[in-house]
Amino acid sequence: MDFGIVELSRLQFAMTAMYHFLFVPLTLGLSILVAIMETVYVMTNRPVWRQMTKFWATLFGINFVLGVATGITMEFQFGMNWSYYSHYVGDIFGAPLAIEGLMAFFLEATFVGLMFFGWDRMSKTAHAIVTWLVAIGSNFSALWILIANGWMQNPVGAEFNPQTMRMEMTDFFAVLFNEVAQAKFVHTVSAGYVTASVFVIGVSAWYLLKGRHTELARRSITVAAAFGLASAFSVVILGDESGYSATHSQKMKLAAIEAMWETHEPPAAFNLTGFPDQEARETHYAIEVPWLMGLIGTRSLNTEIPGINDLVAQAQDRIRSGLIAYDALMHIREARDAADPAIMAKFEQHSGDLGFAFLLRKYVEDPRTATEAQIVAAANDTVPQVWPLFWAFRIMVALGLGFIATMAYFFWRASFRQMRYPDWALRLAVVMIPTPWIAAEMGWFVAEFGRQPWTVDGILPTAMSVSALSITEVGLTLAGFITFYTVLFIIEMGLMRKYILKGPFLDVAETEAWARSHAARLSGQHSTDALTTPAE
Predict the structure, then answer these.
(1) Would the pLDDT of 238 be above 90?
(2) Four-CA torsion 3, 6, 11, 14, nearest 10 degrees
(3) What is the DSSP letter of 352?
(4) CA 390 to chain centre
(5) DSSP-assigned beta bridge partners for residue 454
(6) pLDDT at position 299, please?
(7) In angstroms, rounded to a whole number, what is the distance separating the alpha carbons of residues 164 and 162?
(8) Residue 301 class from Cβ within 10 Å (0-12 exposed, 13-18 middle, 19+ buried)?
(9) Measured between alpha carbons, how far is 154 from 179 in angstroms, rounded to an integer?
């Protein structure tokens, strides 16, 4: 194996994924916020809500186009850079991606045009329904992508077929209702809702500081603060659920996030901060919160959470078990249809550990010839680099708690202080605009980097998943993607800045018509009061 190819392929996919996820959270959140605003417009018929809907929908549309452009590239990469991965698990991974394209993306793409160009061609109610369908399509897209990703984190509902040398789906509903995928979906979309809420509050705060579009800005903050507060709580709760799921499905990732080298008596403490030392297998200057990790990870006070060292020892045992499965598999492949039932039984007994035997391919062509030292080295490879995971997780959590505090403050000011905000809070809101993206990227880093050395956890090592490409080919495409995506990002920022500076479009005719109608209603009300009130 050429590990230069492996690392470059990983870097390319990481780069394209992180660029793509600059656009996804805002698309998810703005789609819902725009739909909420248009619903209020339908209910109240007030032009300011139509103005709000159109303005934030314009920013949604810019972001949506860039998200689609960067997302399509990622799907092609599975066949281009990760061809063995696509061959090995395509039966499972390809199904949710296909459904996402057929059910979600087509729904979203079909109605997005009607949303932007149907204002004067449809009734208000019909247009609001279209806007909600765009929002539903956006979130359905995230659902199916995260079902696919959740299966990579917790591969259920599938088994290895020794005749085809591939993983094959055995239970679609197990894949669909995978506990990791479901928790990951709600956690991810909630993070998108927080991102959009912080964005809307920040832009609206800038308008208030400048004294522009104040009616639109105050109402936008009111909607975003309420929506964002609920979403921020959801992010924390579902993040906790993800930690609980990791206790069962990804023990090494959880131990690495916590820099938990040794297995402690339950309930385990939570390392609030510290400096992990992977060579010494200890965390220097750790500040612990007693019991907290045990409660988060096990929901109990008497369940043990294994440490990294014990998990490495377990990995050695699984590698040896996997070697038995690998040897039986080679005999089955040689015998074809006439495989010895005893060998088949041996393979079935140890097939769950076959992926661990594949870890030895880094050191030797035929895993069966591996030495004891190579087995130990392969087991140590199951430990991801700890300090980046440790700190990325804590940055993400700190930002998440900050979002709760920020949303709660703006919700309180909107609800009980007549939508009036001090200048310091408005300036803070503007400064906070980039922080949800930082938290989201940290979350994806923890999820994906923490799974290494696996593409599919416990099943297929990353080093075996790549295509047979040269370093030059991958390096050139990596440079091309970085250049192209950077240009797209600059275009996105330029367009967003342009339309934010320009501000919302004011429909004078509609505003005047509404004002006349409103005045007529008030006049009629006063006339009725005069007729029904007894003369003094």
Answers:
(1) no
(2) -150
(3) G
(4) 19
(5) 461
(6) 82
(7) 6
(8) exposed
(9) 8
